Amino acid sequence: MSSPSLEEVLSRADALPSLPEAACFIISTIDDETSNADNMVEILNTDPAIVARILAAANSSAFGLSSHVGSMREAILLLGLEEIRSITLATAVIGRLNPRSAAFDPRMLWRHSLGVATCARMIAEDIQYNAEAAFTAGLLHDIGQLLLFAVAPKLFEEVLDRRQRLDETIIEAEQAVFGFDHAVAGGELIKKWRLPADIADGIHGHHDPDSGEFGEMGDLIHIAEVLSHALDLGELPNNRVPYLSELACARMGIEWVSFSAKFAEIEARYDEILHALSLQ
């Protein structure tokens, strides 16, 4: 079976469902200072799955709430816009982009992606970068894998087999089978969906930090992914900590001696969102 080119993969991107309205709303308002709870309630109430997930999270003991929460407005007031955005985006994306295969476990991928998203948000907060955009880029950083699987499932299963059999990285295996990798495919898909350019940069650049081509978000998502592996968020089988670019860390001004004090909070936040999404 011949491998499709990147252009052919992107032309068949309709094999992967487009992002639902609620997710697009969350992403589109990342930089909108006029966005408010009323606007959010109106949009989110159109998606029963998201409403159910948010109300369940608000009523969960994991968030330390004792009174019953019965409306989206109450949930927003109690959880805050940041938590609501995270749960909404993750619910919408994971629920829609969830292919099934004996060889490919999307649940594992999403647990990992949530780990990267959690780390990305914490790093962004620490360096006063856009935390919402960082979380979104972290959540979607491996969407290229889903695209490759949706368009060419047999070939992507070959990638997974090659990765295990030859002890290659996912990037090496994808390059060998497709001639390009999921970071490139994912970044181009995000552009095709007309999402913010910095999110595309984060996805495109998370395996290519030393070039500096993908700006702050490329560096940030690279560092977040390495940190997620280091903290073993997602509990991936045969977890290995990837190469960490010292150049990316220097450009971002990461001081690991002080930032390491935040590791426990990262793990706590990660556990909270897994609980909220029933992914534990």
Protein model, in words:
By secondary structure, the chain is mainly alpha-helical. It has one domain: Hypothetical protein af1432, CATH 1.10.3210.10. The protein has 17 helices and no strands. The longest helix has 22 residues. The termini are far apart.
The N- and C-terminal alpha carbons lie at a distance of 38 Å
Average pLDDT value? 88
> What percent of residues are in strands?
under 5%
> How many strand units?
0
Q: What CATH architecture do you see?
A: Orthogonal Bundle
**Poorly predicted ranges:** none
**Quick one: overall form?**
globular
Which labels suit this protein?
280 residues, mainly alpha, Hypothetical protein af1432, 0% strand, globular
What's the quick description here?
65% of the residues lie in helices and 0% in strands. The chain has helices spanning 6-11, 21-28, 37-44, 48-58, 72-79, 81-96, 106-127, 131-139, 143-151, 153-166, 170-178, 182-192, 197-205, 215-230, 246-252, 256-259, 263-276.
